[in-house]
Amino acid sequence: MLLAYYIHDLSPYAIHFGGGIGIRWYGLAYLAGFVIGILLYRRLAERGYSELQPSQVADFITMAALFGVLLGGRLGYMLFYDSARFFHNPLIVFQVWDGGMASHGGIIGLTLFTLWYAHRHKVSFLNLSDNLVVVGPVGVFFGRCANFINGELYGRVTDVSWAVQFPKEILFYPPDRLQRLMDKAAEIDPALLTPELIIQKAGYSAPLRSYLSAELTPRYPSQLVEALLEGLVLFLLLWTLRTRVRLPDGALTGVFFIAYALLRISGECFREPDAPMTSGLTRGQFLSLFMIAVGFVFLLWSWLKPRYPNAWNR
Fold first, then answer.
1. Which of 100, 117, 219, 282 could form a disulfide with 155 if both were Cys (CB 3.0 to 4.6 A apart)?
2. Which pLDDT score, from 0 to 100, does residue 215 have?
3. Rounded to whole angstroms, how far apart are CA atoms 75 and 215?
4. Residue 185 Cα distances to 17, 151, 207, 217, 262, angstroms
């Protein structure tokens, strides 16, 4: 007996005004990450873990979000995963509403911004980065959930009972298979003239859903797996270390780079590769290997010149 898998039918819009205009879950996810990040970082500052005053936190996180996460994440995605299209039309870097953010690019962007901010405001880069990496996984969590709502970056083929069928898969069908699907969809509803319309209608047309249930491939909901690993698990680990263990400035940043890399490598085992493989590794796994090396550099740096937050010097 075949399992009746869930066919992804979530709208990318929290509120849709029509004509491609509305409030998207993708934007709300980033907003939630920024707001909660500010509240958590301010809490750390109030308890003496940060050299920033609580009143400085909102400005720092806002600028870090704009110039680090958004700019770095978007540029990273275009360079790491879609370079051909980017070099053909560099202006697509501003089309953030279509999705396409690379966490590795965001991390690089945040690192460079934090270096600049620390120099500009005469505060410790290592202390800034330690607190930033503690709250950062919250944004990753919401971002991965937004990936799931968008039905993008889906997982590898599987037959587990909790598999999901993603209609956006048809965008990557070979031409002959896509044409057969479109012919069948047109029989169901003559208005279904494009793959995009089929994807949109999948949540509303029972006959179309019935057809797609036999056509689409069951896949891991890897976005939720990565939200759990890179978001929730990593946050709990770093928050516990920040508030329970006396560590020198820079050590948490080192732990973040290493732990994120290992969790990302694990999560990628569930995710469909969205770029050519490198020595048997996905693009995300390959880039994560460099993060492990960076993490050990931060750990060595922190122990060679130990300096502790005020919370541990009282």
1. 219
2. 93
3. 35
4. 26, 20, 9, 17, 42
Q: Cβ distance 9 to 202 under 8 Å?
A: yes
Q: Torsion angle, CA of 111/134/97/68, rounded to 10 degrees?
A: -20
Note the helical H segments in the chain.
25-46, 54-63, 71-81, 83-88, 103-121, 125-150, 175-188, 195-201, 206-215, 222-226, 234-244, 251-267, 283-304
pTM of the model: 0.88
Classify residue 47 by its DSSP letter.
Answer: T
Q: Structural domain of residue 134, as residue ranges?
A: 6-158+219-247
First and final C-alpha spacing in the chain: 65
Q: Are residues 194 and 72 in the same domain?
A: no
In a domain, 199, yes or no: yes
Examine residue 310 and state whether it is found in any structural domain, yes or no.
no
Residue-wise pLDDT tens digits, 6-54: 999 998 889 988 777 889 898 899 899 999 999 999 999 999 999 999 9
Q: Are residues 109 and 51 in the same domain?
A: yes
Residues 72 and 209 in one domain: no
* Tens of pLDDT, residues 110-141: 888 999 999 999 999 999 999 999 999 999 99
Q: What SS3 state is found at 6?
A: strand
Residues above pLDDT 70, as percent of the chain: 94
How far is Cα 234 from Cα 230, in angstroms, rounded to an integer?
Answer: 6
Largest CA distance in the chain: 74
Asked if 64 and 121 count as a contact pair (C-beta separation under 8 A), the reply is no
Cα 67 to Cα 245: distance, rounded to the nearest angstrom: 31
Task: Tell me the average pLDDT across 225-229.
Answer: 97
Domain count along the chain:
2
Is residue 1 pLDDT above 50, yes or no?
Answer: no
Same domain, 206 and 223: no
Say if CB 67 and CB 269 are below 8 A apart. no
